[in-house]
Amino acid sequence: MNLKKEVLKKVGLDLDIKRIVSSLSGGEQQRVALARLILKDPKIILADEPTGSLDTKNGKIVIDLLLKLLDENKTMIVVTHDLELAKRFDVIVNISELRS
């Protein structure tokens, strides 16, 4: 199987890889962005509301993949309002507590 299609399947998508990104839903676009991230293999990952426009099932897929990337010694900064998601990471910085 083609590597791009394999990575798309990992993020829960079974799409024609030639499909125009703007024709995808917000959640599909978010998962395509994660697939691109996996293919680029960065050392540092910035994730702003990574599950924000996803349903529960696809949100779990995305979180599991992000946590797997952490196991590969990546540095990750995640911005989220989801406290349950935040609890799954090693360090939590609550911005409201930093205000003086």
From TrEMBL:
<dbReference type="InterPro" id="IPR003439">
    <property type="entry name" value="ABC_transporter-like_ATP-bd"/>
</dbReference>
<dbReference type="GO" id="GO:0005524">
    <property type="term" value="F:ATP binding"/>
</dbReference>
<keyword id="KW-0378">Hydrolase</keyword>
<feature type="domain" description="ABC transporter">
    <location>
        <begin position="6"/>
        <end position="51"/>
    </location>
</feature>
<dbReference type="InterPro" id="IPR027417">
    <property type="entry name" value="P-loop_NTPase"/>
</dbReference>
<dbReference type="Pfam" id="PF00005">
    <property type="entry name" value="ABC_tran"/>
</dbReference>
<protein>
    <submittedName>
        <fullName>Bacteriocin export ABC transporter, lactococcin 972 group family protein</fullName>
        <ecNumber>3.6.3.-</ecNumber>
    </submittedName>
</protein>
<dbReference type="GO" id="GO:0016887">
    <property type="term" value="F:ATP hydrolysis activity"/>
</dbReference>
